Amino acid sequence: MYSSCQVANATPPSSKLQSPFQEQAKIYTGLGGADENGQCVCKVFLPDTSFPGDKVELLQKTSMELSQKVELGLSKLELHKSKLVIYAQKMAQLAMRVEIMQGQAAQHTELEFELLRIELQQMMTLITQLKQSVNSSSPIFDTLYVEIRNMTLVVNRLERYDKNNLLVMQHEFTKLQKKLEECQKWHEESSKPNIGFCNHAGISNISKPYIVQLNAHINEGYLHGGWGKDSKPKPGFEEMYWYSGYTTPYTYNLYLYSDYTNLLLRNQFKYFDNTLKGNGINNIMHGNYYYYNCYNTGNLCRMNATTFEVETRVFPDAAWNNRFSYSSATYQDFDFAADENGLWVIYATEASKGNMVLSKMNVDGFSAQQTWVTNVFRRSVSNAFMVCGVLYATRQMNLYTEEVFYKFDTKTGKESYISIPFNKQYEVFVYLDYNPADQRLYMYSKGYYIYYNVKFEMI
Question: Rounded to 10 degrees, what is the CA torsion of 363, 327, 250, 352?
Answer without folding.
Answer: 50
